[in-house]
Structures are given as structure tokens and as C-alpha cells.
Sequence to fold (443 residues):
Amino acid sequence: MPEFDFTRLRRTPDVEAPNLQAWDATDELLVGEALTAGIHGAEIAVIGDEYGAITLALTDAGMPGIRVHQDLVTGRRALARNAAALGITDGADAARRAASERAADEPDGLRVPTYTQGELDESLLTGIRLVLLQLPKSLAELDEIADAIARWADSDAVLIAGGRVKHMTLAQNEVLRRYFGEVQPQRAERKSRLVVARHLRRPDGPPPFPVSSRHSFPSETSTSARVPRAEQVSRAEVEASSESRAEVGRSADGLTLCAYGGAFAGDRIDIGTRVLLGVMSSWAAESVSSRSQARSLNDPGRTVIDLGCGTGALAAAYALAHPASRVIATDRSAAAVRSARATMAANGLGNVEVTLDDAGSAIADGTADLVLLNPPFHLGNAVDEAAGRRLIEAAARLTRPGGEVWTVFNSHLDHRRTLAREVGITEQIVRTSKFTVTQSIKR
Ligand SMILES: C[S@@+](CC[C@H](N)C(=O)[O-])C[C@H]1O[C@@H](n2cnc3c(N)ncnc32)[C@H](O)[C@@H]1O
Fold:
């Protein structure tokens, strides 16, 4: 069988650059393990397959029926595009193909040349005997994935997890040991390493995620002083709080944040987010320098987009302070979207729309009177301005002429210039040692 040509894979619609590629040596090692494992494709789940390299190489090698979970919608779209370019069918067509191509000698239809995409849940893992995992960046995300495998995969399931050696830590093995009786790191190869975990232990308690914290705001109105404090709250308290929305939601001076494992900053408020929240709270107090600006920010009926919403801190804070506004929170990460939905429920914000999308691609141009933006500064594991630039371009597209984009970013990044070029006149509102908040008016 000819070797799979990984160089044909693309990252699009994610950022493409000469130093970034759509697969790595870990993908190749994981594919090699699966090809020799003697397990049928329908019993294999792939988690964290960034642009589809593992799924497509195995499907191409004649292993149909693989189930794949990718957190990022950009990865899902890249997988679909790569599959189409290779003539492989994606999940949307699976049932039709299964019905039409099922061979008489193969009643289970397992020869259907396709894969299916799913969420990190029971349907992804039931009946699975081999899980291939590209190790996630955060331990919380790994914890959630390992719990899901131990909870729902076959009792004899084996997990083969891998990553680049420079990003792997012993703490990852410790997380895996909570769920597996045997965790065996392998010898590194081409700067990647695999870890094999066997003898899963079924968790007996509820899933460890979402976690949640209540963040209260001190009463000072000075922008820099309004830093929310966090208090851990129990799951029962969060459930109770979402039921009694009037007490804990709109009327309170704080915010409950909920987070699944893969969400940015977990249930904490990121320090950059805090700085922008401080500025936003001064809008409500109408204490910003220009009164007309404060009035326009407080107008009812405004459409506000939290672009790259993470756990939804900015959208929830705005919606709590401006209940008559239409607020849309959108993120490309499924974990972020689930978290933001849980955050809205916990704060009694039934009217905030939360969508899984790449840079708000499904939202019409000029929809927003106001975009709130705390752009990403990483592409994978690398710090890169291109990730933020992509969302700034999207913010410019989504904002109506005369509308505003409020952005917080690391002060060393050159986003102010990008904002001025893409959106319009951009003014610095706050600058701390680490973070800058700007206001841009769409030309
Ligand atoms: C720095 S975090 C900010 C999260 C949240 N707004 C906050 O302030 O806590 C950036 C967020 O942007 C999201 N993101 C990155 N690229 C994106 C894209 N192309 N489309 C939508 N969201 C994206 C990430 O998943 C992440 O949740």
C-alpha cells in the first residue's frame, strides 16, 4: 500500500504560514501504531486530530468508520476540505453511503470509505477499543478527555497519546494515572513521544467538568481598580444559581463563570479580560471621558458581539449590565461554546446567543454596533500575531460603519496599528504594564 502523502494536507481555514504545517511526527507515529494494532476503524476514536492527518491517513489506508473529535471548528472544516481533496467522504454522507454501498458479504457496512465527526461524549466513545490522542495543551482538557475515555470506551480500550517532546510534562502522565492502571511512556522518536495507557478505571462520580467560580466586583469605579475577585463555588451552588436567575444573575454585582476542560483561562478571569471588564464597568457608571460615548454604549437595542468569547465573561458582563441589548457570543472552540452556554445559564442570561463558528463567519457584515475583543495570541503552541489579526479583520467586517470595536491585548503586540488599518480611528483608552485597551470606530 502506498504511503499516505501528508504534504497534501492544508490547515485552511486556519492560518497558513510557511513555518506552519498541517501534520507533525506525532500524527505519523499514531498512524503507525493504529495500522499495526489489528483493530477495525469502527473501533477507533481519534481525539485532537488538528487538521485531520490521523483520520485521513487511516481512512485512506482502508480503515473506514473512524470516529473523530476536534475541539476547533477550524480543524473540523480543514478535515472536511482535506477529505474532499482526497476523495474521502465525511460524516454527513456516511449514512447514505452505508445504505447504498453495503456489500452483501459485509452486512455491517464497515467498508464505507468514511469517518464521522462527533463531540466529546458517550456516542464518540461507546464500543471504542483504541483511542488515538494528540495531547492537548492544558491538563484540564486532558483530564476531561481521560475521564470521558474511562467512562465510555470499552473496558479493554487502550489509549495511545502523543505529543512533541518539548511540550510534554510528567504532570500529563499523572493525569492519565488517575484513569488508567498502566501508563507507559515510549522512547522519543523524531522529537515526538507516545504514551500508552491501559486498564482503564471507570469513574464512579459525576464528570469533573464544567467547573465554576463566582467573581465579585469591588465597588470602586476606577478602571484599574475594578478587578474581580474569584470565589470557588460548588456544582450544587451553580445549579441553584442558574435556577434562581433573578438573585444571582442580573441583580448581582458579580459573575459566575463556567468552564469545560479546553476553555481559555478555565473558570478564572484572565488578567487581560479583567482590564477590559474594568473599562466596561465604567461605561455602565457613565464615567468615561466622553459622555456621549457612554450614552451610546448604554443605548438599549444595540447588537453586541463577543468575538472569541471563551467562557463568555465579556458577553455575560455586558448582557448583565445592558439587558435590553442583543448579545452574540461566538468562538471556534466547542469547549468554549459549551462553557459560555453554561455561563449564560448560571447567570440567568437566556437571551445571549452562543455560536460555534470561525471568526463569526455565519454572522452578516455590519451586524454589530459594538464588538468586544480579547484576541488570541497563540497559534498552537507558538506565540503569533497572526491569530489576533484574523479576529481583528473579522471584527472590522462585523461592525457597522460608526460602530465600535473595543479590544484588549498584550501591550507588546502591534495590534493598535492593525486595528487602525482594518477598523478605523483607534484610541488607546487604558494601558497597564501588560495590557492595552483600545476603542476603534468603524469607518
Ligand atoms: C484570549 S481568549 C479570550 C476569551 C474571552 N473573550 C475572554 O476574554 O476571556 C481568545 C479566544 O478566541 C478564540 N478564537 C481564536 N481564534 C478564533 C477564531 N478564528 N474564531 C473564533 N474564535 C477564535 C479562542 O478559542 C479563545 O477562546
